[in-house]
């Protein structure tokens, strides 16, 4: 049972119909205020959640569910972390305190969670395409009264896919479609791109000001008819032709454009949305909002800081930080951020590239130190990869840092634009493996499998910070071709990590422990789980060898010959999907070389893993220390009878 108490109005809303049936337009500002305060109350205490994005769309959320007959009318949120207010109004208020925790509600819209979540949105910029598909399908089925609304913003409009959807939607003149551009000026980090720099590409203010006056005039009439609509359209067209030097981008793509409007005026928003329902064809409503609106510390502070601040004091704005008793290892992302600057100081060819995640991947360190050599290209993974390829063609050495889950969006570019041409691009895949609370849409489960089948590709994973630095150093040496380094979210294991960098021979692993009973082969950070397990197993009398393979491709065949010549029992451990991953590569070698052994693969099973802490998910997937110990005991027959078993027998 949740301890968080809603306000008097919010307490009466279990589903959007309650909002529509129980409250007048004049009540909506109070509903909005209570909804905003409820989110502040909950997130400030549970942490582990996004924050600023949902606060910025509170009034828009209330207006949408007030005007549209959800869930019959379809609303798609993009990006998905804007949807907290939506979740609270659609039956999940009492569960909201479980947000992003294991067994709780998802931090993103999820179709299996609610009929009001009409489309799963974990990555960004998919809403227009999805809503257009729904609109065309319903139009074909004869359901022409259904409204279809995409809310796109918080940086999602910088991605090419959004414009692909808009480009197509402009041709579907019968589609009952509204695209709401939530223009808050930022995403996680400040937005980038010429579209953002030049607002006249989106709207020309003089024309919009006059058209807005006409809109208000006709909006004062109780119900505008089709004749009045045609008059508005004709007058708007004449005004645009007479006074606008630069055409409106959206209207040139056959969208009716309205705005910009104040996205925090909930009463006016309801009036505008009610009128837009009666206007046929694709429409754009441009709303100006403030990320973190209504919480002064987020409005005044750094947007990235309040994107997902963790636990904080809602009265003072102080973010609660746990001060460790002793020095802790750094995050892998920060090791990357500092190391690339060190390397760039030595190698003038090195450049850094990231799609909209400079603070998340710590490329912001290089952007500050060397602004002419580090690039945030916006939410545009495909462009990031091909841009890196272009840099490489002209002799530069790009480090393209993309979260593992987002690299999936640029797979064709990796294949054709980089690997086919054998270009030296270093792909640093942050957040590889299970990432925790972001859940199924964000786990970096597949990169070992999808990169391993690409010709010319080298694939590596460090077991610790020293190896990450050495692999980054190795990747920037001449003629290394496409070079992938994957590493997890969170802290490493070394407090003294700024070690001198050295080259690691391509495809060369290392033996960490000798042993006689069986062998454990690991790739990347889970090698530390194996080390913990081996210490415990040694006390039980088990002699287990451990090999940190470091490379999945090319894999160290010398080590594998040694392993299969000596051991008939082998365990592989990886923080990636079992199907096609590291363990599969080991089995392929064994079969090709006609060895025989009892091999057990530990890793992410062939299913989508939901949210939880990383430790919870390592345990759930069965490749943490406990799972390794159990598997070794079972394989070697090291069963122990506990007191309960002895009594029962």
Briefly characterize the structure.
The protein has 649 residues and is of the alpha/beta class.
Task: Based on the model shown, name its key terms.
Rossmann fold; seven-stranded mixed β-sheet; 40% helix; alpha/beta; disordered C terminus; 27 helices; 649 residues
Give an account of the 3D structure.
The chain has 649 residues and is of the alpha/beta class. The chain folds into three domains: 10-203 and 248-296, Rossmann fold; 332-486, Thiamin diphosphate (ThDP)-binding fold, Pyr/PP domains (Rossmann fold, 3-Layer(aba) Sandwich), CATH 3.40.50; 510-636, Rossmann fold. The chain has a seven-stranded mixed β-sheet, sandwiched between helices. Strands 1-2-3-5-4 form a five-stranded parallel β-sheet, sandwiched between helices. α24 (582-592) links the parallel β16 and β17. α17 (381-393) runs parallel beside α19 (411-419) and α22 crosses α26.
Radius of gyration: 27 Å
CATH structural class of the largest domain:
Alpha Beta
Strand proportion: 5-15%
For the record, the count of structural domains works out to 3
Q: What is the count of helical runs?
A: 27
Largest sheet composition: 7 strands, mixed
What do we call the CATH homologous superfamily of the largest domain?
A: Thiamin diphosphate (ThDP)-binding fold, Pyr/PP domains
CATH topology of the largest domain: Rossmann fold
CATH 2nd-level architecture of the largest domain: 3-Layer(aba) Sandwich
Strand order of the largest sheet: 7-6-8-9-11-10-15
- Helix and strand composition category: alpha/beta
Distance between the termini: 41 Å
Mean pLDDT: 89
- How helix-rich are the residues, as a percent range? 40-55%
Poorly predicted regions are: 195-210, 213-226, 237-247, 641-649
Indicate the overall shape: globular
Number of strands: 17
């Amino acid at each position: 049972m949740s301890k968080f108490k809603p306000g008097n109005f919010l307490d009466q809303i279990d589903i959007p119909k309650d909002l529509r049936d129980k409250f007048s337009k004049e009540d909506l500002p109070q509903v909005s205020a209570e909804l905003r305060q409820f989110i502040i109350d909950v997130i400030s205490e549970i942490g582990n959640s996004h924050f600023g994005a949902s606060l910025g769309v509170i009034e828009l959320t209330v207006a949408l569910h007030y005007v549209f007959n959800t869930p019959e009318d379809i609303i798609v949120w993009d990006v998905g972390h804007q949807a907290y207010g939506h979740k609270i109004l659609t039956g999940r208020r009492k569960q909201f305190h479980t947000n992003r925790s294991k067994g709780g509600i998802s931090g993103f819209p999820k179709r299996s969670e609610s009929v009001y979540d009409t489309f799963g949105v974990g990555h960004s910029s998919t809403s227009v395409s999805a809503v257009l598909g729904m609109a065309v399908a319903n139009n074909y089925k004869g359901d022409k009264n259904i409204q279809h609304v995409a809310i796109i913003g918080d940086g999602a409009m910088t991605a090419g896919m959004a414009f692909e959807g808009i480009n197509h939607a402009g041709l579907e003149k019968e589609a009952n479609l509204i695209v709401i551009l939530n223009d808050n000026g930022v995403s996680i980090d400040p937005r980038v791109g010429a579209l953002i720099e030049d607002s006249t590409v989106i709207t020309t203010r003089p024309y919009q000001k006059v058209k807005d006056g006409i809109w208000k005039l006709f909006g004062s009439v109780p119900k505008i008819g089709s004749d009045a609509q045609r008059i508005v359209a004709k007058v708007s067209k004449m005004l645009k032709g007479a006074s606008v030097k630069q055409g409106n981008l959206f209207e040139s793509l056959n969208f009716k454009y309205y705005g910009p409007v104040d996205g925090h005026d909930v009463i006016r928003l309801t009036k505008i949305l009610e009128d837009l329902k009666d206007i046929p064809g694709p429409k754009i409503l441009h709303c100006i909002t403030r990320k973190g609106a209504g919480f002064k510390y987020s409005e005044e502070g750094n947007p990235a800081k309040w994107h997902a601040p963790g636990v904080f004091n809602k009265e003072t704005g102080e973010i609660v930080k746990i001060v460790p008793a002793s020095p802790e290892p750094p995050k892998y992302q920060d090791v990357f951020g500092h190391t690339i600057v060190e390397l760039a100081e030595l190698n003038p060819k090195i450049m850094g590239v990231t799609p909209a995640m400079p603070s998340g991947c710590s490329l912001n360190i290089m952007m500050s130190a060397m602004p002419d050599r580090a690039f945030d290209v916006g939410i545009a993974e495909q462009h990031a990869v091909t841009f890196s390829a272009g840099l490489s063609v002209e002799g530069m050495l790009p480090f393209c840092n993309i979260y593992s889950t987002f690299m999936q969006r640029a797979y064709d570019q990796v294949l054709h634009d980089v690997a086919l041409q054998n270009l030296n691009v270093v792909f640093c895949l942050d957040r590889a493996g299970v990432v925790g609370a972001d859940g199924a849409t964000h786990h970096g489960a597949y990169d070992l499998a999808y990169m391993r089948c690409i010709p010319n590709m080298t694939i590596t994973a460090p077991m610790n910070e020293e190896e990450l630095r050495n692999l980054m150093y190795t990747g920037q040496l001449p003629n290394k071709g496409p070079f992938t380094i994957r590493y997890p979210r969170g802290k490493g294991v070394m407090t003294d990590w700024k070690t001198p960098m050295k080259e690691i021979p391509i495809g060369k692993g290392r033996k960490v422990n000798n042993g006689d009973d069986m062998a454990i082969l690991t790739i990347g950070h889970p090698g530390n789980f194996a080390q913990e397990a081996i210490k415990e197993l040694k006390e039980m009398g088990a002699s287990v060898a451990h090999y940190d393979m470091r490379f999945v491709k090319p894999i160290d065949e010398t080590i594998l010959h040694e392993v299969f010549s000596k051991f008939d029992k082998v365990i592989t451990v990886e923080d990636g999907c079992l199907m096609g991953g590291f363990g599969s590569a080991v089995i392929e070698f064994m079969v090709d070389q006609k060895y025989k052994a009892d091999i057990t693969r530990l890793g992410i099973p062939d299913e989508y893993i939901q949210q939880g802490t990383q430790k919870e998910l390592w345990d759930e997937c069965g490749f943490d220390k406990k799972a390794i110990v159990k598997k070794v005991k079972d394989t070697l027959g090291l069963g122990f009878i506990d007191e309960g078993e002895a009594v029962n027998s």
